[in-house]
């Protein structure tokens, strides 16, 4: 198995801050995004809870047309100014039929402020288990 | 649980920052309005629980994570 890679553990710039934690886990606030060669699945690893890590993928791998409406409050919460781009990732369950992505509650990260949030979208048509290609 | 009685258009204030107003009362249902800072999320509980469960499943079914300290 290839190794997970991230910036140095001691490098503060590699740490992502989730003010509210993750949905259902409010004390999970500091994360690192790990990736490894050859895999589309990345790992959002929590630095506050040992063993807590969420597999994530880019949403386009589940739906190329995914354009969630995030709203002004989300951009404000992340400290986004103007039209600064945000990174969107979706939590993925690794099941027997392959990975499936939760498009209803994306993880949104601001690359400049290093702040992140998990947003629950109002649109009930968004699946929680979209197949990942 | 703290229980307060409110009439239509009356509010409660939480933590100096969040105001919850009773907007409409009808049989078996109330409509509530929320004013809160942008970094405070507000969700219906049943939906919140579904997403929390989906997160839990994702954590439990992943392959082993590297131990903390392994970059």
Explain this structure to me?
The complex is a heterodimer of chains A (133) and B (71). With 133 residues, chain A is mainly beta. Chain A is 5% helix and 31% strand. Chain A is built from 1 helix and 9 strands; from the N terminus they run ββββαβββββ. Chain A has a 7-stranded mixed β-barrel. By secondary structure, chain B is α+β, with helices and mostly antiparallel strands. Chain B contains 1 helix and 3 strands; from the N terminus they run βββα. Chain B has one helix at residues 45-61; strands at residues 11-14, 18-26, 29-35. A 3-stranded antiparallel beta sheet of chain B has the order 1-2-3, with no helix packed on it. In chain B, β2 (18-26) and β3 (29-35) form a beta hairpin. Chain B is elongated. The mean pLDDT of chain B is 90. The A-B interface holds A 1, 3-9, 19-20, 22-25, 34, 43, 45, 47, 50-55, 72-74, 76-77, 91-95, 102, 104-105, 117-120, 128 and B 38-41, 43, 47-59, 61-63, 65-66, 68-71.
Helical stretch tally of chain A: 1
Mean pLDDT of chain A: 89
Number of strands of chain B: 3
What would you call the quaternary organization?
A: heterodimer
Radius of gyration of chain B: 19 Å
**Helix run count of chain B:** 1
Spatial order of the strands forming the largest sheet of chain A = 1-2-3-4-5-7-8
State the helical fraction of chain B. Answer: 10-25%
Looking across the biggest beta sheet of chain B, what order are the strands in? 1-2-3
What would you call the shape of chain B? elongated
């Amino acid at each position: 198995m290839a190794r997970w890679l991230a910036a140095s553990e001691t490098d503060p710039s590699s740490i992502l801050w989730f003010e509210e934690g993750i949905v259902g886990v409010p004390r999970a606030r500091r994360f690192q995004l790990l990736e490894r060669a050859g895999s589309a699945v990345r790992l959002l690893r929590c630095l506050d809870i040992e063993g807590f890590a969420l597999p994530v993928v880019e949403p386009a791998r589940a739906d190329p047309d995914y354009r969630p409406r995030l709203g002004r409050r989300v951009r404000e919460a992340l400290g986004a100014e103007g039209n600064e781009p945000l990174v969107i990732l979706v939590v993925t369950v690794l099941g027997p039929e392959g990975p499936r992505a939760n498009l209803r509650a994306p993880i949104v990260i601001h690359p400049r402020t290093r702040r992140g949030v998990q947003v629950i979208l109002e649109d009930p048509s968004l699946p929680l288990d979209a197949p990942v290609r | 649980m703290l229980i307060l009685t409110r009439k239509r258009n009356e509010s409660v204030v939480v933590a100096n920052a969040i105001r919850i107003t009773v907007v409409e009362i009808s049989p078996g249902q109330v409509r509530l309005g929320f004013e809160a800072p942008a970094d405070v999320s507000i969700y219906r509980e049943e939906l919140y629980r579904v997403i929390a469960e989906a997160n839990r499943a994702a954590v439990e079914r992943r392959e082993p994570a590297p131990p903390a300290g392994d970059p």
